[in-house]
Amino acid sequence: MKILVCISNVPDTTTKIRFNAEKTEFDKTGVQWIINPWDELALTRALELKEGSGGAVECVDVASVNLIDAEPTIRKALAIGADKAFRVNAMPKDAYFVAGQLAEVVKSGGYDLVLCGIESSDYNGSAVGGMLAEFMDYNSVSAVSGINLDGGKITINREIDGGKEVLNISAPLVAVVQKGIAIDPRIPNMRGIMMARQKPLTVSEPTGIDALTSFETYELPAPKAACKMIDPENVKQLIDLLHNEAKAI
Amino acid sequence: MNFEFSEEQLMIQQAARDYAQRELIKDVLERDASGEFPTHHIKNLADLGFLGMLVDTKYDGGGMDTVSYVLAMEEISKVDSSCAVVMSVNNSLVCYGIEKYGSEEQKEKFLKPLARGEKIGAFLLSEPEAGSDATSQRTTAIDKGDHYLVNGTKNWITNANSGSTYLVIAQTDAAKGHKGINCLIVDKNSPGITLGPHEDKMGMRSSDTHSVMFNDVKVPKENRIGEDGFGFKFAMKTLEGGRIGIASQALGIASGAFERSVQYAKERKAFGKEIGYHQAVAFKLADMAVKIENARNLCLKAAWLKDQGKPYGTASAMAKQYAADIAMEVTTEAVQIHGGYGYVKEYHVERLMREAKLTQIYEGTSEIQKIVISRDVLS
User: From B58, which residue of chain A is nearest by alpha-carbon distance?
Assistant: First the structure.
C-alpha cells in the first residue's frame, strides 16, 4: 500500500492576522509558517500505520500545492519521517484548484490511501479532501478520528452526532481526518532533521485546472467587547444592560 | 554578518520547544517537589537525539552544530533545567571530551552508547576541598602497571546515579602538580564505588546530584584519556565547551521567566489597566529584554566561534558569566512582577529563580569566569 498525506502550509496558530490596506490580501510579513495541525496529525498516523504494517505499507509521501517559500514546511514533514515530497508550484487559489493539482500527484504516484486534514487552520474550507476523492473517483470518508489497516481491509472510526461509528472500507480511499487520528504530532528527531534535505522533493508545474472562486475582500472579526463589571448588589443595572445593550433578555 | 538561522537550526529549536512545552511542562512542578529523576523524559530526549546532538554521526550522534545546541538548550531550560543539565553534561562535557581527546577504541566503546543516550555520562572534577581550585585534586589514581587504583571523594556530581560512564579527574603524581593529573573513563558499577545521598538542592531538584566515593577502584590503563598527565588540560579545555551549555541553560531560565512575565503583565490588571502598561513594570520588562538579548548574542557568538574552529574560551566565559548573572536578575524581577503569585510554586517563576542561582555557581562560578576573562584582557 502507498499512502499520500496532503500538507497545507499555514500561519502559526498564534499569528496576529493582518491584511493589506485594500483588505484583498493576507499580510505575510513576519509570519511563521507551520504544517497545518490536522495534516501533521494525519502524517503522524500514516507513519504509525507504516511502522505497524510489517512492510505492507510501502511508503508515506507528502504533497503540497504551494510556492517555493513553503519548502521549509514540506521539509519538516520529511524530517518527521515522510519518504518523499511533491510540491505543485502554484499559489493554492481555492479548494477546487488545490484538489485538482493534488489529483495529478495521486494519479502519477498510484496512491491507495490519501489522508487530508479536515480543514486548513487558515481558510477552514473543509473541501479539498472530498473534491480530491471526486477527481480520483476514490472512496471517501470524512471526519475520520481513527484509522487502522488489516491486510487489505481499512477500518475507520468516525465521530457522529451523539456517538461514534466504525466502518470497513476498501482502498483506494481518501480519508479526511480530524482530531483523535493521532494523540500528538510527531516531533522530528536529529537524524530526521539531518536527512530531510537528502530526501526527494519533486517540484511540478500546475495542470490546466483553474480556480472556480477568487477572493474579493477579507475582514477581521469585530473586536471582543470589553467586559463590564457590575456591583452584585446592583441587579437593576445588570437587567438594564442585558436588556438594552446586550439584548440578551 | 548574518543573524539568520538555517532551516535545520530552526527545526531543532522548534523540536526542543515542542517537547518542552508539550511534555516537560506536565510534571516539572511535581518533580521539583519530589526530586524524582526524569527518567522517561531523558529516554524521550535521547530518542529525539538531544543527548548526543553534538557528536559526529559516525559515532551515532546527531552531528549538529553548537549554534543548534544553544537554541535547543534555551528551549528546554525555559521549562526544565533539570533535564537541561543532564543534556548539557552529557553533550558538552562527557561526549565532547571523549570525542575530542579520546582514542578510537574509547569512542567505539564509550562514546557511541553515550551519543545514543543509552548511557548517561558524568564529569567528576569537584571535590570537598577542590571546587574552583581544580588543581588541588586529592583523589588519587596510582599507576599500578596495567591499571590505575583510584581512591578519594568527588562532590556535587551531576548524573552521579543516573549516569553510568564517569569521567574522573584524579592525581597520579602529586610531585608534578597539575601535570600529574589524569582523566579516566570509569564504569560506575566498578567495585569500590559508592554514592553519597541524593543532595537536597535549592533548585534543579530533579537532576540527581551526589558525592561519589572511590575505594581502591581498579581502572584499566586503556581508559585514560590522552597521554599521562593530560587530565588537567583535558578538564580545562572540556569545561570551555561546557560553559556554552550552562550559559545557554541560564539564558533559557531567564527567557522562560521573561515570557511568563510578559504574559502575566498583559493579563493582570491594577489601577484600571494591565500592569504591563504601568511604567514601573514596562521598564522592568524592557531591561529584562535587553539583558536576555545580550546573553543570547554572547551564547551564539561563543557557539559560532566553536563551530568555526576558532578560539572560544574567553567568549564562552563571557557568555556563562553574563547569562548566569542576568538569569538571577531577570528571574528575581519576574517574581517581583508576579507579586504574591510569583512567590508561590504554581506560577513557576520562583522555581526559575532558584534554578538561576546554580548557574552562577557550577561549571565555574561567575567569579572564576571573571578570572578567565580578565586574564585574557590583560594578556
Answer: A191
